[in-house]
Design brief:
Blueprint: H1 2-15, H2 28-31, E1 37-57, E2 63-67, E3 78-89, E4 93-101, E5 104-109, E6 114-116, E7 120-122, E8 127-147, E9 151-174, E10 177-202, E11 207-220, E12 224-237, E13 243-260, E14 263-281
Antiparallel strand pairs: 1-2, 1-3, 1-14, 3-4, 4-8, 5-8, 6-7, 8-9, 9-10, 10-11, 11-12, 12-13, 13-14
Length: 282
Amino acid sequence: MTLRLLVVSLLVVVASSGVPQAAAGDKSDDAGPFARGFGYVGAFWVTQSSTELSVFSTDLPLGARLNVQKDLGVRDSFTVPRMTVGWRFGKRHVLTGGYYDLSRDGAKRVERNISLPGDIELTAGIEVRTNFTLRVSKLQYTYLFHRDEKVTLGISAGAYVGRLGAELTATTFVGPIQETETAFNESVTAPLPVFGFRLTYRLSPKWGVLASSDLFLLNYDDRYKGILNDTQLYAAHRTFKHVGFAGGLNFQTFNVEFEDDNLLWQLDARLVGFLAAVTFYF
Protein backbone atom coordinates (compact mmCIF):
# COMPACT_ATOMS: atom_id res chain seq x y z
CA MET A 1 0.00 0.00 0.00
CA THR A 2 2.86 2.36 0.77
CA LEU A 3 4.29 1.78 -2.70
CA ARG A 4 0.93 2.56 -4.31
CA LEU A 5 0.74 5.86 -2.46
CA LEU A 6 4.23 6.75 -3.64
CA VAL A 7 3.36 6.00 -7.28
CA VAL A 8 0.15 8.03 -7.09
CA SER A 9 2.05 10.91 -5.51
CA LEU A 10 4.67 10.97 -8.27
CA LEU A 11 1.95 10.97 -10.92
CA VAL A 12 0.26 13.90 -9.21
CA VAL A 13 3.53 15.83 -9.17
CA VAL A 14 4.07 15.22 -12.88
CA ALA A 15 0.50 16.17 -13.73
CA SER A 16 0.68 19.37 -11.70
CA SER A 17 4.20 20.46 -12.67
CA GLY A 18 2.77 23.33 -14.70
CA VAL A 19 1.00 24.90 -11.71
CA PRO A 20 2.81 28.00 -10.43
CA GLN A 21 4.19 28.12 -6.93
CA ALA A 22 1.99 29.81 -4.34
CA ALA A 23 3.02 33.39 -3.81
CA ALA A 24 4.35 34.55 -0.47
CA GLY A 25 1.55 35.63 1.79
CA ASP A 26 -1.05 33.69 -0.23
CA LYS A 27 -4.10 33.45 2.01
CA SER A 28 -5.01 30.07 0.51
CA ASP A 29 -2.66 28.69 3.16
CA ASP A 30 -5.38 29.36 5.72
CA ALA A 31 -8.51 28.89 3.60
CA GLY A 32 -8.13 25.43 2.03
CA PRO A 33 -9.28 21.98 3.20
CA PHE A 34 -5.86 21.45 4.85
CA ALA A 35 -5.29 24.82 6.46
CA ARG A 36 -2.30 26.05 8.40
CA GLY A 37 -3.89 24.66 11.56
CA PHE A 38 -5.76 21.39 10.90
CA GLY A 39 -6.95 18.43 12.93
CA TYR A 40 -9.61 15.76 13.27
CA VAL A 41 -11.34 13.63 15.88
CA GLY A 42 -12.95 10.46 14.65
CA ALA A 43 -12.97 6.68 14.51
CA PHE A 44 -11.47 3.85 12.47
CA TRP A 45 -14.04 1.09 11.93
CA VAL A 46 -12.13 -2.14 11.34
CA THR A 47 -14.20 -4.27 8.97
CA GLN A 48 -11.59 -6.90 8.06
CA SER A 49 -8.78 -8.22 10.19
CA SER A 50 -6.41 -11.16 10.18
CA THR A 51 -4.17 -11.77 13.18
CA GLU A 52 -1.84 -14.68 13.89
CA LEU A 53 0.00 -15.49 17.11
CA SER A 54 3.02 -17.73 16.61
CA VAL A 55 5.20 -19.44 19.21
CA PHE A 56 8.58 -20.94 18.33
CA SER A 57 11.29 -22.68 20.31
CA THR A 58 14.71 -21.09 19.92
CA ASP A 59 16.41 -24.39 20.83
CA LEU A 60 14.31 -26.95 18.95
CA PRO A 61 12.61 -27.00 15.53
CA LEU A 62 9.19 -26.66 17.15
CA GLY A 63 6.49 -24.08 16.57
CA ALA A 64 2.77 -23.42 16.38
CA ARG A 65 0.51 -20.77 14.87
CA LEU A 66 -2.86 -19.62 16.17
CA ASN A 67 -5.48 -17.59 14.36
CA VAL A 68 -6.61 -15.32 17.18
CA GLN A 69 -10.09 -14.84 15.68
CA LYS A 70 -10.89 -18.53 15.11
CA ASP A 71 -8.85 -20.17 17.87
CA LEU A 72 -9.01 -17.55 20.64
CA GLY A 73 -12.26 -15.67 19.96
CA VAL A 74 -10.69 -12.22 19.52
CA ARG A 75 -13.00 -9.82 17.69
CA ASP A 76 -12.29 -9.34 13.99
CA SER A 77 -14.33 -6.13 13.73
CA PHE A 78 -14.10 -3.27 16.20
CA THR A 79 -13.87 0.51 16.48
CA VAL A 80 -10.65 2.46 17.08
CA PRO A 81 -10.72 6.07 18.36
CA ARG A 82 -8.36 8.37 16.44
CA MET A 83 -7.28 11.98 16.73
CA THR A 84 -4.73 14.12 14.89
CA VAL A 85 -3.70 17.77 15.06
CA GLY A 86 -1.18 19.57 12.86
CA TRP A 87 0.28 23.04 12.44
CA ARG A 88 2.17 24.35 9.41
CA PHE A 89 4.73 27.02 10.19
CA GLY A 90 6.50 28.76 7.38
CA LYS A 91 5.87 27.42 3.89
CA ARG A 92 7.41 23.97 4.17
CA HIS A 93 7.31 22.86 7.80
CA VAL A 94 4.54 20.91 9.57
CA LEU A 95 4.35 19.67 13.16
CA THR A 96 1.82 16.87 13.76
CA GLY A 97 0.63 14.99 16.82
CA GLY A 98 -1.72 12.03 16.97
CA TYR A 99 -3.19 9.22 19.06
CA TYR A 100 -5.00 5.95 18.42
CA ASP A 101 -5.80 2.78 20.33
CA LEU A 102 -5.92 -0.65 18.63
CA SER A 103 -6.42 -2.66 21.83
CA ARG A 104 -8.87 -5.57 21.76
CA ASP A 105 -9.69 -8.74 23.65
CA GLY A 106 -11.60 -11.98 23.37
CA ALA A 107 -12.73 -15.13 25.17
CA LYS A 108 -13.54 -18.60 23.90
CA ARG A 109 -13.75 -22.25 24.88
CA VAL A 110 -11.02 -24.01 22.94
CA GLU A 111 -12.45 -26.37 20.32
CA ARG A 112 -9.33 -28.52 19.85
CA ASN A 113 -6.23 -29.51 21.76
CA ILE A 114 -3.45 -26.98 21.13
CA SER A 115 0.13 -27.74 22.08
CA LEU A 116 2.59 -24.86 22.18
CA PRO A 117 6.35 -24.98 22.75
CA GLY A 118 7.40 -24.51 26.35
CA ASP A 119 5.00 -27.22 27.61
CA ILE A 120 1.96 -24.96 27.12
CA GLU A 121 -1.15 -27.07 26.62
CA LEU A 122 -4.58 -25.68 25.75
CA THR A 123 -7.01 -28.58 26.13
CA ALA A 124 -10.31 -28.64 24.25
CA GLY A 125 -13.12 -27.29 26.43
CA ILE A 126 -11.12 -24.91 28.62
CA GLU A 127 -11.83 -21.19 28.45
CA VAL A 128 -9.09 -18.98 27.06
CA ARG A 129 -9.02 -15.21 27.52
CA THR A 130 -6.83 -13.04 25.33
CA ASN A 131 -5.98 -9.35 25.55
CA PHE A 132 -3.91 -7.35 23.06
CA THR A 133 -2.83 -3.80 23.86
CA LEU A 134 -1.57 -1.31 21.28
CA ARG A 135 -1.77 2.41 22.06
CA VAL A 136 0.24 4.92 20.05
CA SER A 137 0.92 8.61 20.73
CA LYS A 138 3.15 10.30 18.15
CA LEU A 139 4.81 13.63 17.40
CA GLN A 140 6.24 14.21 13.90
CA TYR A 141 7.96 16.92 11.92
CA THR A 142 7.25 17.00 8.18
CA TYR A 143 9.28 18.81 5.54
CA LEU A 144 7.28 19.70 2.42
CA PHE A 145 9.80 19.18 -0.37
CA HIS A 146 7.15 19.98 -3.02
CA ARG A 147 4.49 22.62 -2.62
CA ASP A 148 2.23 24.46 -5.08
CA GLU A 149 -1.36 25.68 -5.24
CA LYS A 150 -2.76 22.15 -5.43
CA VAL A 151 -0.20 19.63 -4.23
CA THR A 152 2.06 19.20 -1.23
CA LEU A 153 4.47 16.31 -0.78
CA GLY A 154 6.44 15.76 2.39
CA ILE A 155 8.59 13.34 4.34
CA SER A 156 8.48 13.17 8.11
CA ALA A 157 10.37 11.89 11.12
CA GLY A 158 9.62 11.93 14.80
CA ALA A 159 8.98 9.80 17.85
CA TYR A 160 6.13 7.84 19.31
CA VAL A 161 5.35 6.40 22.70
CA GLY A 162 3.91 2.95 22.19
CA ARG A 163 2.20 0.79 24.75
CA LEU A 164 2.29 -2.79 23.43
CA GLY A 165 1.22 -5.86 25.34
CA ALA A 166 -0.33 -9.31 25.11
CA GLU A 167 -1.85 -11.60 27.71
CA LEU A 168 -3.10 -15.15 27.32
CA THR A 169 -4.79 -16.94 30.25
CA ALA A 170 -6.54 -20.31 30.47
CA THR A 171 -9.26 -21.23 33.00
CA THR A 172 -10.05 -24.82 33.98
CA PHE A 173 -12.39 -26.35 36.58
CA VAL A 174 -11.57 -29.27 38.84
CA GLY A 175 -15.00 -29.96 40.26
CA PRO A 176 -16.21 -26.65 41.73
CA ILE A 177 -12.66 -25.26 41.93
CA GLN A 178 -11.58 -22.76 39.30
CA GLU A 179 -7.94 -22.67 38.29
CA THR A 180 -6.47 -19.92 36.13
CA GLU A 181 -3.07 -20.19 34.52
CA THR A 182 -1.30 -17.42 32.61
CA ALA A 183 0.44 -18.80 29.52
CA PHE A 184 1.82 -15.46 28.38
CA ASN A 185 1.82 -11.93 29.76
CA GLU A 186 4.22 -9.31 28.45
CA SER A 187 4.06 -5.56 27.82
CA VAL A 188 6.37 -2.68 27.03
CA THR A 189 6.08 1.12 26.93
CA ALA A 190 8.87 2.96 25.14
CA PRO A 191 9.63 6.09 23.09
CA LEU A 192 10.75 4.99 19.61
CA PRO A 193 11.19 6.47 16.10
CA VAL A 194 8.54 6.95 13.42
CA PHE A 195 9.07 7.87 9.75
CA GLY A 196 6.44 8.86 7.25
CA PHE A 197 5.28 10.21 3.91
CA ARG A 198 2.47 12.70 3.27
CA LEU A 199 0.55 13.90 0.20
CA THR A 200 -2.27 16.45 0.02
CA TYR A 201 -4.16 17.37 -3.14
CA ARG A 202 -6.48 20.37 -3.22
CA LEU A 203 -9.47 19.59 -5.44
CA SER A 204 -11.26 22.90 -4.75
CA PRO A 205 -11.27 25.63 -2.10
CA LYS A 206 -13.35 23.31 0.11
CA TRP A 207 -12.40 19.79 -0.99
CA GLY A 208 -9.09 18.02 -0.58
CA VAL A 209 -7.53 14.54 -0.44
CA LEU A 210 -4.85 13.43 2.00
CA ALA A 211 -2.73 10.29 1.79
CA SER A 212 -0.16 9.40 4.43
CA SER A 213 1.85 6.38 5.49
CA ASP A 214 3.82 6.06 8.74
CA LEU A 215 6.30 3.37 9.78
CA PHE A 216 6.75 2.83 13.53
CA LEU A 217 9.93 0.98 14.44
CA LEU A 218 10.25 -1.20 17.54
CA ASN A 219 13.61 -2.31 18.94
CA TYR A 220 13.74 -2.24 22.71
CA ASP A 221 15.87 -4.00 25.30
CA ASP A 222 17.04 -6.56 22.68
CA ARG A 223 13.85 -8.50 23.40
CA TYR A 224 11.12 -6.55 21.61
CA LYS A 225 11.37 -6.02 17.86
CA GLY A 226 8.96 -5.16 15.12
CA ILE A 227 7.47 -2.68 12.71
CA LEU A 228 4.03 -1.09 12.48
CA ASN A 229 2.48 0.63 9.47
CA ASP A 230 -0.40 3.11 9.51
CA THR A 231 -1.69 4.20 6.07
CA GLN A 232 -4.57 6.63 5.60
CA LEU A 233 -6.34 7.83 2.46
CA TYR A 234 -9.29 10.15 2.93
CA ALA A 235 -11.16 13.16 1.54
CA ALA A 236 -11.86 16.24 3.65
CA HIS A 237 -14.49 18.95 3.16
CA ARG A 238 -14.21 22.33 4.84
CA THR A 239 -17.95 22.77 5.35
CA PHE A 240 -17.70 25.80 7.62
CA LYS A 241 -14.92 28.22 8.48
CA HIS A 242 -13.67 26.20 11.45
CA VAL A 243 -15.43 22.83 11.09
CA GLY A 244 -15.70 20.19 8.37
CA PHE A 245 -15.93 16.45 7.76
CA ALA A 246 -13.65 13.71 6.45
CA GLY A 247 -13.98 10.10 5.39
CA GLY A 248 -11.92 7.42 3.72
CA LEU A 249 -9.87 4.28 4.26
CA ASN A 250 -7.37 3.23 6.91
CA PHE A 251 -4.93 0.30 6.70
CA GLN A 252 -2.90 -1.01 9.63
CA THR A 253 -0.28 -3.75 9.67
CA PHE A 254 2.12 -4.80 12.37
CA ASN A 255 4.66 -7.50 13.01
CA VAL A 256 5.96 -7.68 16.57
CA GLU A 257 8.10 -10.32 18.25
CA PHE A 258 9.21 -10.94 21.81
CA GLU A 259 11.91 -13.36 22.96
CA ASP A 260 11.74 -14.84 26.44
CA ASP A 261 13.84 -17.73 27.77
CA ASN A 262 13.71 -20.34 24.99
CA LEU A 263 10.55 -19.08 23.27
CA LEU A 264 9.95 -16.57 20.51
CA TRP A 265 6.45 -15.04 20.36
CA GLN A 266 5.33 -13.34 17.13
CA LEU A 267 2.18 -11.34 16.43
CA ASP A 268 1.22 -10.52 12.82
CA ALA A 269 -1.88 -8.48 11.99
CA ARG A 270 -3.58 -6.91 8.98
CA LEU A 271 -6.45 -4.48 9.60
CA VAL A 272 -8.63 -2.73 7.00
CA GLY A 273 -11.51 -0.36 7.59
CA PHE A 274 -13.19 3.00 7.18
CA LEU A 275 -12.20 6.29 8.74
CA ALA A 276 -14.81 8.95 9.57
CA ALA A 277 -14.03 12.16 11.42
CA VAL A 278 -15.02 15.71 12.24
CA THR A 279 -12.30 18.12 11.12
CA PHE A 280 -11.47 21.48 12.63
CA TYR A 281 -9.39 24.45 11.46
CA PHE A 282 -7.61 27.15 13.39
